[in-house]
Prior knowledge:
The complex is a heterodimer of chains A (340) and B (265).
Chain A: H1 2-35, H2 38-43, H3 49-58, H4 67-79, H5 84-93, H6 99-108, H7 113-135, H8 146-152, E1 176-178, E2 184-186, H9 191-200, H10 205-240, H11 243-250, H12 255-267, H13 274-279, H14 287-299, H15 302-308, H16 314-339
Antiparallel strand pairs in A: 1-2
Chain B: H1 20-41, H2 45-48, H3 54-81, H4 98-114, H5 122-127, H6 155-164, E1 175-183, E2 192-199, E3 208-215, E4 228-240, E5 243-255, E6 263-264
Parallel strand pairs in B: 2-6
Antiparallel strand pairs in B: 1-2, 1-4, 2-3, 4-5
Helix pairs in contact in B: 1-3, 1-4
Amino acid sequence: MTQLNNGITLFFSLLVEAMPFLLLGVIFSSVLLLFVDEQKLLAIMPKNVVLAALAGSLIGFLFPVCECGNIPVARRLLTKGAPTAVAIGFLLAAPTVNPVVFWATWIAFRDQPEIVFLRVGFSLTVAVTIALIFSAQADIRPFLQDNLTRMMGEPDPAVAVSTEPEVSPLLKSGTFLMQAPGQVLQLDAPPAQVLAQVAVAPPPMGQRLRMMVDNMVLELRELGAVLVIGSAIAAFVQVAIPREVILSLGQGPVTSIVAMMALAWVVSICSTVDSFFALSFASTFTSGALLAFLVFGPMIDLKNISLLLTVFKGRAIIYLFVLAAQLTFLLTLVMNLYTG
Amino acid sequence: MTSIPKANGSRAPGRRQIPWQALVDATMLMLWGLMLLRFTVTGKLYLLLHPDYMWLAHLAMVLLLAMGLARVVQVWSSYRQRSGPAPRSQEHIALLPRQFSSVLLIAIAVFGLIYNPRPFASETAFQRGITDVLGQTRSRPQRFSLGGDSENRTIVDWVRTLNVYPEPDAYAGQGATVSGFVTHIPGWPDNIIMISRFVLTCCAADAYPVGLPVELPAGANRPAPDTWLEIKGTMKTTTLDGKRQLTIGSATLTEIPEPRTPYEY
């Protein structure tokens, strides 16, 4: 009975601590998703591959979203002709390298600031490395889902982005639809191009606000449910599994990392709140293992595989998974062995 | 309702669509806000969070209630004007079935409205490995000062002091007044109990126990585990489990009610 009470208290404690951050994350991501223009953002991306990978990894500061929100954004970036390095860097780093997550991690681990900074450092390292590996492939499209490659058009990224024709399109022959003032859509253009442009046309302000609120509630409902399940698992593990078992697992430099990575993959908790989850293991697991959880979890987990499948083909997801797992494991193992 | 809508051909006549999903969402948001409100009003929030971060929970409470209210107003006005549903964002891909998420969140909020969280007690303290030493993974305070009278030190202050200078004899003869709950440690003699507290750095998830051994006065009954006591005594050194430990000797025990904030920080 005491165990059950403890478990429930722990569960509510995690929920109450995590809910404000989830709310903030959802609000930020809804506002920014509708008001930041990716087109302009992409125009200022550096051309150098390494810099592009790094820049992509840092875009998270503009889109403070967790891993559920960033896949649709990465998808849009790809359809708008983002270089592979930018898109992959963003996909892997944005859930961790953003202000809301940084703050939440800081609150959870303010006594161990090294965890906060290493989380950001390791995430950037892993994201940039994988982005570089993927951009060695000249044409990313064989890795992507077919419906996405159709939207991307031909390899030369001049397609579907020209919104400023040299003469007024109304002076040309064909069928046109009026979009927002000054924008017309040619109906007899190739279907992929039409679709891409429809997605670009911004809806009017009132509708955008309404969509923003809708998006907030929608994300809150989904991520809230995942948070509830994740907190329940954390509370259960804390009270139901004998402490000796957890300790023997959590103190080995290798076993602790593997266990936490597996846990991160299964629990799929949102990156804005996962530091509180990790905190409940802080006294029993090595710091390297906690970092492995915090770095690997936001990149790939059980929950976002279904989301990744809307962008990538299975083979590419396996590459992403294996690379991210190996790099995280290596980095955190080095940390465990050097800091004891 | 007797009003007959004008037949405008484009809409199915007669029926107003009740936006169930929006109403369910509004209920969910309000219930979560109310749950946080209840924890705040009853002081149960002290059992869950470090006081430094309570403003975050308060902020969440206000935001949730406001969002719920906004949702109701939105539903009401679009119901009155009979406008169609808002356009759905194209970006979203569902992870869990919508109804499942809603039901789960509403159920948890209702549970939170009736359940009374309880502070951790001796059994947990023992299970989490109660010590008078802060281990490697424990928080290391940034500042440390031995300000004031030894009698004003809490259990945590004593444990932090010991952490810096562990020799128990150094404290012999100093007076101590501490309060906490009783834990029985197996293997210790019957006249010695542990007086303990949980320490929080962020929330109940990272609560860890600390404690000091107390030597009971001769002939005194051994207090039951989880009894809250205030203990006055003088520090001395005893050997427990083959280890020399700082112990509160010649103690007087006063039973106290469980404090509103049972944790230390």
